[in-house]
């Protein structure tokens, strides 16, 4: 059973691309796929539920106890990354709708498949998983503030509080509460334990379902928004290069371990495009520009992950080797010390 889960996680990038391709074919060959838009929020809620279900309650407490890691994680995602995004967005045309889409997606750190990608990239994925509820709550609070600051007067007419409150209740609070309930049930009931184990196989299929629903519902509505995708592509490409190194440097600056530093790098570079899409669709006149801008970032990010999972393990490898050598030397010294005969003390 665990082998199946591991294979799903290791093959998630190809699985996601297959979901996108199948959704694109369905959008062009089948009439009425735009109606799938109503299924985006339920699919997202289910995806987040099975994601939160992987967060052991003890690990959630562990995230709060690791103050340095959590502090660097929040500093990176809500101070350093917004500074980078604030600079990059200046290279875009002045169209507020275009800028809103880029800001929405790049200011929101990922809380779902980043955990598996970080595991494949030899990062501290369990610590990052435990921090996912914190990241999601903070970004829902911070997003309106950042949008108001970076968009100025245009934000008032485009961004409203109601979609954020709706997203918090149905995409954060409800899935998290349900996941905690199932975890408690699994601890006291064997049947609940089996249900929890079966649900543990579903994060990758659930994310694939969300990708399918999003792409199949959005593509028929794109119309003439291809130009918007081409405009934002260079910004996403530059972000994909700068963000992971900014996260890694932040981790090194504060003395985190290599595995913790890689986790920060993965979090900095992976964005919450699927979760912010309902917020974008709630903006008046969002279609076709905002969905196009957000889905474009998702595709760039999936391609980038293929590079990250191979490059990230190289970060800090020399440091790990050095620590391993130091530990080996200490062990040899201890063994040598115990094997030497004790020097006899002269009698007084």
UniProtKB/TrEMBL annotation:
Keywords annotated in UniProt: Cell membrane, Membrane, Transmembrane, Transmembrane helix, Transport
Official protein name in the record: ACR3 family arsenite efflux pump ArsB
Q: Which Gene3D superfamilies match?
A: 1.20.1530.20
For this chain, the family text in UniProt reads: Belongs to the arsenical resistance-3 (ACR3) (TC 2.A.59) family.
Q: Where are the transmembrane segments?
A: 12-32, 38-57, 69-91, 97-115, 127-147, 167-186, 198-219, 225-251
For region Disordered, the annotated ranges are: 322-348
Q: Which GO terms describe its cellular component?
A: plasma membrane
Transport as UniProt keyword: yes
How does it sit in the bilayer? Multi-pass membrane protein
From which lineage does this chain's organism come? Answer: Bacteria, Pseudomonadati, Pseudomonadota, Alphaproteobacteria, Hyphomicrobiales
Q: Extract the InterPro entries matched here.
A: Arsenical-R_Acr3, BilAc:Na_symport/Acr3, Na+/solute_symporter_sf
**Locations listed in the record:** Cell membrane
